[in-house]
Amino acid sequence: MGGTMPNLGNVFAELRRQHQVVRMAAFGSSNTQRRLMGMHWFDLAELGLKQTYGPGCVQCCNMGVGGDTSVLMLERFERDVTPFHPHFTIVTVGGNDSKPERKVDAPTFAANLKEIVRKLAALESQVLLQTYYSCDLEQLPPQHAEQMVQYMQIVRETAEECGVPLLDHFVRWERLRRSDLGLYRLLMTDRMHVNAAGNLVLGLDLLRALGIELPDAMRAEALPGYFGRKILDLLETPFCGTSSGENRK
């Protein structure tokens, strides 16, 4: 997965032991916000947890707002996050901050991300930081593409510095993008966002980090995600990928 990943299944089981219902939030921008028909990655987490721990185990709230930077997320923190008081919060941010026109430089982004983690810790919320999947860097303006890579590294460094778990989608998706650009783009709806199949891949990776899988009866609905996740897994082995490292269209 990349990054430091404790057994989040154990983390959730302990939260379940402490609380009758675990409140779980997804906090981010457009890749967190529900914006497409079909299953969202956060939906898979909810379904998997309820199938594993029971229908009343978790209350989920999607707090994604398209276009948000870390600045805007901090501005709405007291409105959105504090009243819900989540026990577990998945934070995904950086894609909009990395756009040069948004004028959020790297030190500011790093400070804002640490402040988000600090504010969640003050609420006694377990935090999971996620990187973005790899965006279609070749289709982004060059400075945005460069800063996107830089800001995802800041997410990794912040997770390490703050001692919170990290789910590094970017590393896994970048292997696919570099290995087979055409196949990678089958999981994308545009240069910045995944499609329904891409959401399934992200959700299945999150479920695995939580130590659970969908029950057999539900797997048929997620077949594109299982194929996509398997490809990402195979690309982590030494014998996979192109020998030249060049993209294939």
Can you walk through the features of this model?
With 249 residues, this protein is α/β, with parallel strands linked by helices. It has a single domain (8-234), classed as SGNH hydrolase (Rossmann fold). Helix content is 49%, strand content 10%. It has eleven helices and five strands; from the N terminus they run H-E-H-E-H-H-E-H-E-H-E-H-H-H-H-H. The chain has helices at residues 8-18, 41-53, 70-75, 77-84, 106-122, 142-162, 169-179, 181-185, 196-209, 216-219, 223-234; strands at 22-28, 58-64, 88-92, 126-130, 166-167. Strands 2-1-3-4-5 form a five-stranded parallel beta sheet, with helices on both faces. Helix 2 links the parallel strand 1 (22-28) and strand 2 (58-64). Helix 5 (106-122) packs parallel to helix 6 (142-162). The protein starts with 7 loop residues before the first helix and ends in a 15-residue tail after the last helix. The model is unreliable at 240-249 (pLDDT under 50).
Itemize the secondary structure elements and their pairings.
Blueprint: H1 8-18, E1 22-28, H2 41-53, E2 58-64, H3 70-75, H4 77-84, E3 88-92, H5 106-122, E4 126-130, H6 142-162, E5 166-167, H7 169-179, H8 181-185, H9 196-209, H10 216-219, H11 223-234
Parallel strand pairs: 1-2, 1-3, 3-4, 4-5
Helix pairs in contact: 2-9, 5-6, 9-11
